Amino acid sequence: xxxxxxxxxxxxxxxPATARLVHLNNAGASLMPDPxxxxxxxxxxxxxxxxxxxxxAEAEPLLEDLYDALAGLVGGHRDEIAFVENATxxxxxxxxxxxxxxxxxxxxxxxxxxxxxxxLRQVANRTGAQVEVIPSDNLGQIDVTALERAxxxxxxxxxxxxxxxxxxxxxxxxxxxxRITRAHGVLFLLDACxxxxxxxxxxxxxxxxxxxxxGRKFLRGPRGTGFLWVRRDLIAHLEPPFLDLHAAxxxxxxxxxxxxxxxxxxxxxxxxxxxxxxxxAAVRYALSLGLAPIRDRVYALGRELRQxxxxxxxxxxxxxxxxxxxxxxxxxxxxxxxxxQSRLGADGINVSVSRARYAxxxxxxxKLEAVVPASVHYFNTSEEIARTCDAVRRL
Length: 395
Ligand SMILES: Cc1ncc(COP(=O)(O)O)c(C=O)c1O
What we know:
Bound molecules: pyridoxal-5'-phosphate
Structural class: alpha/beta
Mean pLDDT: 97
Distance between the termini: 27 Å
């Protein structure tokens, strides 16, 4: 491997658990690097020392920097960012704000995250809008030709796309989708939960209108953190499903209310402030390493893992798409995914299990009840990959 623009020794020193653990569950929740851990703990210490509101006031410049950091991360503006407690709620705040009517068409793809798909169906049931799942092409990614054909038929209000699914290494061609939605004036909501922090994700290059992501996965932030980005000129047209005194203010005549003009209309007043500080540290940490070097190393390690696993008798790889990222999914004949997870866990190797109910449109269709995702990050090493393959071989 020669994509070593990342200082791996330093990244591992910042991540003490790497000394005793092979953590390949970075798409579940990665390990926080020490600066992130310290940012959370230091804020909690400040709260303990002077009080929660007082601590937030003292930390305000740093907490405000979260918006600049996130804007820098996705190529947006700070007023387009909302802190939300997780990716699902961030996505919901945008999706449920879109005014759908009977007959509106909502297009999605087979990689759609189950929570999103449930929300699409709920809104369709309530409003009479229609949900259509665009089929995948022969590589297993969204068929952009079929998408364009569907959009050309008219009546499409929204394209909802999961960039990288929960259940595999596929990277959907988001920019190709964005070119179609832009050309036809259709809204594009991108679930970038599994891609942000793993690779460069630029909202202008992709051409999406709304993007949701979480803190704990490839960004290596604390749990219970996430964010939403909404294109500036769209914000005023989206009335959040919930409003509070942070998102809006009561009008002078007390008969109405005025919703704030920036993306913080999608936030709520109370939040995990120490988590905000930690998320800010995580984004700054990722930006300091560079998202392109992160992607190069993650993809290279992913390829190594796929290669190593494919040489093991009985192992089947399940990743789809022309572009494949650091999430490597496999099964081994005769070994249930839960058993693989627990046996590797006993060897100090963390992997995950993805079940069909997380991604019914994809795993369900492929008749895969569950798969084992092993998701690498830049702090993993070739030795860890070799050790993991060895452990799978010896199962
Ligand atoms: C593609 C995708 N979208 C959304 C989510 C939900 O993220 P969160 O748990 O932060 O709400 C996940 C979680 O695994 C995911 O994989």
